[in-house]
Design goal:
The complex is a heterotrimer of chains A (300), B (260) and C (66). Chain B has 260 residues and is an all-alpha fold. Chain B is built from ten helices and no strands. The chains are: A alpha/beta (300), B mainly alpha (260), C mainly alpha (66).
């Protein structure tokens, strides 16, 4: 459990606007971290500072414990809309990327080719990037980010511009990279975050308002909600009308929201047992990340 | 400096594929040809186009060989500078504007290599173009007007080359500092306007990069004042180094302005 | 047109060859490039009808760099 990358009070101020404010987190080697937050919450700014494009106003980035390290040597970066020289072919660009990242020029051509095949551009190696579609650019963007086998992969909204099929394919590629790289990616699509993450970072207005593992965050923000399935819609209606709790109902289901889970749940079960209503199933529901996101984003 | 080679290759490939390594030399050769030819055939051209009255006494100046070469340089000093400035003012600024720079700046490159890769390629294109053009003009001038001493010609072209390198350095440094439009404007002001100012007010000083073109032509008719000439060369070389340092610093500082 | 007779074409020819080369290079580039500033056909006319300055103007402002 060693932190490969650590930020301490990372801050970026533009004029009077605090784009990123005292953000501290660490990335554990070999894990994936999702950076989530509404638009304008500072996700891209944070990634740009880590990528070495922006100079932090304050704070520090350390790599493997080395303070103020030039982490450009150890990262691969995929911007949200990667731009390529239109006169270059995919192979030429990927090879140049590998060499500029310090890879030995004897291996770059083979590595570039292998990487392009891995991202699904095997057919387009010698095509000029000027003729690439959005999806192909995203794939090439991924190729140039991983060709030199960086320790850390930074991805800004890697799949949000893609259609569902492309999104699925890129997510699968990223998952297969997880074993060898430490990944930090921003996204506003929470299904993606739920699918591939060891750690969640919630940004809101430039501040890190929540962080932790997916299960930790879920536990913390989970509001206990039970779903009761009745034998008939009439029973559900009766329950909703008579019970002393906050209950909503829909067809044969009733939903009970509890403030104080443990003591109240006992009462609920007792009430149900003596109610004489036909009950088929009682189950506890967990909040989706989407719901938690809304909660965190709204709280002040 | 390992990535200097990679960046140099990228720059070279770019200028091959956008045809700059072809069309820019051709433009300079064109002026190198057209100047001696039009000077020589001017009477015939006027006769062919002109409705000159029969008895109009129209005495055309007789050009000397040196004057013809100077006239070619005169074309370079305006059209040539325009081509170099407008052709290359976007070399760094454009990569920031369209975001192609981003994937270079996130890599562990040195901005000295980044700047020098551009400076070397553009400098090479500019110098090769100017030399091809001047050699052409020299050949045609000797053919049509008379001999120009070899040593004189090389002293002239060599001096002018230092000025060209100065111009190229201005353009690349401005592109590192400013957006493309402003980089072109400031470069043109520095190259064309300052030159006019220097020639109007410049009687008060004798050492300046903007005097190099005049000193270059003086090699054709005699020789420039040695002290003024050598000091101007030294000052220009120092200015070039200064502009490179400024350009490297600006490339680095402005990397954060690249479109992400 | 007797004034044409005295002209040594061997000396003058290169100037036309260069203009032709510039025109051809500009047209090749125009046909390959995906996008120009302004309509392509206008640039084709500019390149063809304005000798020397047509191709130069195209290369400087016509072609979209990238």
């Amino acid at each position: 459990m060693t932190a490969i990358l650590e930020t301490t009070n990372l801050t970026k101020i533009y004029g009077s606007e605090q784009a990123v404010n005292k953000v501290s987190f660490s990335l554990i080697e070999g894990t994936s971290t999702a950076l989530i937050g509404p638009n304008g919450s500072g996700k891209t700014t944070t990634l740009s500072m880590l990528a070495g494009l922006l100079q932090p106003t304050d704070g520090m980035i350390s790599f493997n414990g080395e303070k103020h390290a030039d982490i450009r040597k150890h990262i691969g970066f995929l911007p949200q809309y990667p731009q390529f020289f239109s006169w270059m072919t995919a192979l030429e660009f990927t090879e140049m990327a590998a060499r500029l990242s310090g890879m030995d020029s004897r291996h770059t051509k083979i590595e570039a080719q292998k990487t392009l095949e891995f991202v699904g551009l095997g057919e387009a190696l010698r095509k000029k990037t000027g003729a690439f579609s959005g999806g192909m650019k995203q794939r090439l963007g991924l190729a140039q980010a991983i060709v030199h086998k960086p320790k850390i992969l930074l991805l800004d909204e890697p799949v949000s511009a893609l259609d569902p099929v492309g999104r699925r394919e890129i997510m699968n590629l990223l998952k297969s990279l997880q074993q060898n790289m430490t990944i930090l990616y921003s996204t506003h699509i929470l299904n993606d975050a739920e699918e591939m993450t060891n750690q969640l970072l919630f940004l809101r207005k430039g501040e890190l308002v929540e962080q932790g593992s997916l299960s930790d965050v879920k536990t913390k923000y989970d509001s206990p909600r039970y779903r009761v399935e009745f034998a008939s819609a009439q029973d559900a209606l009766t329950f909703a009308a008579r019970s002393p709790w906050k209950v909503s109902y829909e067809e044969i289901f009733a939903f009970i929201d509890l403030d104080n889970e443990l003591p109240e749940m006992n009462a609920v079960l007792g009430y149900l047992a003596n109610s004489g209503l036909g009950i088929r199933k009682v189950e506890r529901q967990t909040s989706s990340l989407e719901e938690i996101f809304m909660k965190v984003a709204r709280q002040e | 400096m390992k990535n200097l080679i990679v960046l140099f290759q990228k720059e070279w490939r770019e200028n091959t594929r956008n045809f700059k390594i072809l069309w820019i030399p051709l433009v300079f050769i064109f002026f190198g040809l057209s100047e001696p030819l039009t000077s020589y055939y001017l009477p015939q051209i006027l006769e062919a186009v002109g409705n000159l009255p029969e008895d109009a006494v129209f005495s055309l100046p007789e050009f000397t060989a040196a004057q013809v070469i100077m006239a070619t340089m005169g074309q370079y000093q305006f059209f040539g500078m325009l081509v170099l400035v407008l052709g290359f003012a976007g070399t760094i600024s454009r990569e920031r504007k369209n975001g192609t720079g981003t994937l270079i700046y996130v890599r562990p490159i040195s901005y000295l290599s980044y700047f020098l890769s551009k400076w070397k390629v553009i400098g090479t294109i500019a110098l090769v173009s100017v030399w091809l053009g001047l050699l052409t003009t020299w050949y045609y001038t000797e053919l049509l007007f008379g001999k120009v001493d070899t040593a004189d010609f090389f002293a002239f072209a060599g001096t002018y080359s230092v000025w060209i390198l100065f111009v190229v350095t201005i353009v690349v440094a401005m592109s590192a500092w400013l957006p493309t439009g402003a980089a072109a404007t400031v470069s043109l002001l520095l190259v064309l306007l300052v030159q006019i100012v220097d020639s109007l007010l410049g009687a008060y000083w004798t050492i300046s990069p903007w005097k190099l073109a005049i000193y270059a032509t003086q090699w054709l008719t005699g020789s420039p004042d040695a002290t003024n000439f050598w000091w101007s060369i030294v000052v220009t070389l120092i200015a070039i180094v200064g502009l490179v340092v400024f350009g490297v610093w600006m490339s680095k500082r402005n990397a954060s302005k690249t479109k992400i | 047109m007797d004034f044409l007779e005295g002209i040594p074409w061997g000396i003058i020819a290169p100037i036309f060859i260069i203009q032709l080369l510039l025109l051809i290079i500009a047209l090749i580039d125009l046909s390959k490039i995906s996008d120009t500033n302004g309509p392509k056909w206008v640039w084709a006319l500019v390149i063809i009808f304005f000798s020397i300055f047509g191709p130069i103007t195209y290369f400087i402002i016509g072609r979209k760099q990238g």
